[in-house]
Amino acid sequence: MTENVKEGSFNDDVTLIHVPSSLLALSVVPLLGIAIVSYQMNLGLETSILWGTVRSFVQLSILSAILQPIFYWGQDNPWVVLAYLCFMVLLASYEATSRSQYHFQNVFTYMFLAIALNITVVSLFAFGIILKPQPLWNPQYVITIVGMLLGNGITGISLALNSITSSFVEQPLEIELHLSFGASPVEACQRLVRDAVRVSTTPMLNSMAVIGLVSIPGMMTGQILAGSSVMEAARYQLLILYLIAVTAFGTVLTEIWLVQRVAFDRQAQILRPNFFFPKQSAFHDIKSFLENVLKRRENSRLQRLNENTNLPDYRSIDDASAKNSSETTIEFILAVDRAADGCENQTSLLSFQDLSQSIERTEKDPLLLFDRISHTIHYGDMVFVVAPSGAGKSTLLRMLSKLIFTDASNRILLEGRSTYSPTVWRKRIRYVRQNKVDIPGTPRDMIVRILTFQSWKISKHSMPFTTQQMISSVLHFIIEFGLEEECIDKLWKDLSGGESQRVYLAIALASQPDVLLLDESTSALDLDSKLLVERVLWKIVLEKRMGILWITHDTEQIDRMTFPPKAFQGNSSS
Question: Which of 11, 255, 412, 538 is 20 to 30 A off residue 554, Cα-Cα?
């Protein structure tokens, strides 16, 4: 009794004021007035106000009708409580997935696993160690507290799912940029994951920061109205608040980890943005499921028919004819005469044999980009890739840098080996795309970020860089390309297309790859700037023996590099 007095228990005879149905109906009148105001002002909110009012009344009435027998039966039967908890988690999983802009196959299952796992762990901690109700599954505690954990955490969970899936679909170039510098999948999407966690947990953290200052939270209010001491109500509210934070953080991290496993191929470490698709309605999901079942049954019937009658598979014949109908060719032009340089016996650096690649325009209409192309690049080679637009030149370079899937029959070797890990392979073979770099921060920030990748910390093929060494090398190339040093500290979004291309190329060169794959990397430059870049690349090929595979549509550029002016040769020998 003394403890109750100290903790602020004001009386033990307080009973909750009864609210009859008539007074409850009266409390709705002001809300109806707001709906009328919305109608008069053409706000368009009156339907939502009325629907929300009716829906909340119906849902809470049904909930009270359901919980009363569950509380009664659940005292002696834990399976009743467990079944209702599963039902709650199912609804929470559906609600979380329904708010996401993009879905992927089995997204509901992944969300259910993430929520169920964290709810289970937090509940075991809360009820097994902290509260210890009797019995342990006491529905008065378990169902109400788990309901609060789900209800208060669902917003953050859905925000995290929407943020991370949208990033994988809408920002694949940023991820590919980091992958091309030797990042692992986790390292490549680190910023996107960080942003998703921050977006999803900021509302909860803000709520924790102001709780008790601008409002009395719901559970504390309810306990005080029910007659509990203010201190005891505050303790319960703090307990619930901490449990909500742990549940939300744990579920967000778990779901992001699961989405990452879907987004990336674990063996090739390649992003798969095509695994995500715009959110579909529940009716569409059911319809697709039924269509797939019927399609499998039809395919099974046709297969049995073909086996019985030995009919040829006309779909395979059509696919083969579609592939063989392509006459697209890719030409390789060697710019450096190694024989004239006294280097006839060059070591093979990068070689590929019988590479083929096609894309699916439709399910039964594949488009062959190129078929059975082969080439070998030696140390000190500069090779131009020439073909019409749409022939698959960029696809070829991305295949060589292992940024897209390649068929097992495609043989690509680096120094005669194909067994390098994807991160080591991409550290040694640098793909430089033509797009303007569009990531947050400055080039200096990007350099610092690259040097944190694990493949750069431990490398058998080159000495680790220090940050200052890397930045100094980048600044050297920036000046050689005719830019000011200040470009390294400008935001990427503030650089022009030509400035972005040259700074990006400077970072690629400073990273000292063995092979440089240039995808129209001077397309945004004027002639004077092109000449500066060409002079630097010519010098590097001759002095560093770097291999370069270069896509360009500029025939004059090919002529200049194949038959370089004396100014180029003079600079290289000086």
Answer: 412
**Distance (Å, whole) CA 418 – CA 398:** 16
Q: Which among 409, 425, 454, 423 is positioned nearest to 269, based on CA atoms?
A: 423
Pick from 185, 176, 161: nearest CA to 438 = 176
pLDDT at site 324: 40
The C-alpha angle 13, 231, 9, rounded to 5 degrees, equals 25
Answer yes or no: is pLDDT of 479 > 90.
Answer: yes
Pairwise CA distance, residues 554 & 549, whole Å: 15
Nearest one of 173, 248, 169 to 208, comparing CA atoms: 248
Instruction: State the alpha helices, DSSP H only, in 310-402.
Output: 314-324, 393-400
Going from N- to C-terminal start, the domains of the chain cover 13-74, 78-278, 330-573
Handedness of CA 173, 174, 178, 184 (dihedral sign): negative
How far is Cα 496 from Cα 484, in angstroms, rounded to an integer? 13
Nearest Cα neighbor of 154 from 182, 110, 115 is: 115
C-beta separation of 535 from 508 below 8 A: no
Helix intervals (H) in 264-311? 282-309
Answer whether 567's CB lies under 8 Å from 532's CB: no
User: In sequence order, which residues have a C-beta less than 8 Å from that of residue 418 and are 6 or more positions away?
Assistant: 411, 412
CATH of domain 330-573: 3.40.50.300
What's the pLDDT score for residue 314? 34
Q: Strand, helix or coil at 386?
A: strand
d(CA 197, CA 164): 9
Q: What is the mean pLDDT of residues 354-367?
A: 70
Q: What is the mean pLDDT of residues 534-561?
A: 90
pLDDT at 281: 60
Distance of alpha carbon 195 from its chain centroid, rounded? 11
C-alpha–C-alpha distance, residues 377 and 382, integer Å: 8
Strands of 547-551's sheet in order across: 331-334, 382-386, 547-551, 515-519, 429-432
Average pLDDT over residues 150-179: 92
